[in-house]
């Protein structure tokens, strides 16, 4: 299979983990932002997490530099456009990009301005390329519950205009779901769809709670349902879709090697899986790369690819018209 020419769908991609290193250097020079280096090779070392990264927390340290240049409307618009442009150039036809508005307020932007800027960048790309997008608003688990309420409230006017869902992300502690029941319940009332990062770092029970307490329709990663029977069963029975990110999972030590990744076992057992990059820059990857890894490692077939592509369409938070268009590509 030539994954470069096949149509692809990505449901789990972080904006702040997917900046072009050249763009970081360009913005930093223009705005007088201090970087560890202005050499492209050196800055790449600062941005890319190694495969022998020790943990999720070590991996997350790579996001500090990108956020330095994501504090203005112009920069957010440019960075979003470039991410969709990069995806379109590798034949990604539909992409859901997630970002945490609360991280981009350091120079005075409010949540509405941040969301609008990212939307503008996405729409710029849609006008130039054969790609359609939607946005997922992430709430940081390391921040207060009030900050999650703020994102839910201020994102509400953008529902139906490019914003489709809410997410919880960042470092994963056991039992985090209980703290965020109310803001996520309010989000569902407003019409947000729900995807939750859970089961990324050895706590399968978080997936169970994400589904039962938060009403998660999709799970970011979900690797550790393999060690929690109740979580595994609820994901399978309710057809909760897993947004799996193989390279990222090796980097964060969710798995030690690609051959240990449970994606194929899940797929064979009827659990709905999708393939994603997580962070194109931090994981130094693309959708072509992720698909190539998975399909070579597990000797998957054309039919497997079609099934996963269709899983991605069905699980996407796109409207029916977009879904019908995506089905025609395959």
Automatic annotation (TrEMBL):
Q: Which SUPFAM superfamilies match?
A: Metallo-dependent hydrolases
Report the cofactors.
Zn(2+)
Question: Which amino acids does the record list as binding substrate?
Answer: 14, 16
Question: Which residues are responsible for catalysis?
Answer: 200
- Where is coiled-coil annotated? none
Sequence ranges assigned to domain Adenosine deaminase in this UniProt record: 7-328
First-tier enzyme category under EC: hydrolase
Q: Which InterPro entries match?
A: A_deaminase, A_deaminase_dom, Ado/ade_deaminase, Metal_Hydrolase
- Residues holding Zn(2+): 12, 14, 197, 278
Record bears the keyword Ligase: no
Q: Classify the source by domain of life.
A: Bacteria
Cofactor annotation comment: Binds 1 zinc ion per subunit.
Catalyses: adenosine + H2O + H(+) = inosine + NH4(+); 2'-deoxyadenosine + H2O + H(+) = 2'-deoxyinosine + NH4(+)
Q: Which GO terms describe its molecular function?
A: hydrolase activity
Functionally, this protein is described as follows: Catalyzes the hydrolytic deamination of adenosine and 2-deoxyadenosine.
Q: Which PANTHER family match?
A: ADENOSINE DEAMINASE (PTHR11409)
Family of the protein in this entry:
Belongs to the metallo-dependent hydrolases superfamily. Adenosine and AMP deaminases family. Adenosine deaminase subfamily.
Protein name, per record: Adenosine deaminase
Origin organism is: Neobacillus pocheonensis
Q: Which gene encodes it?
A: add
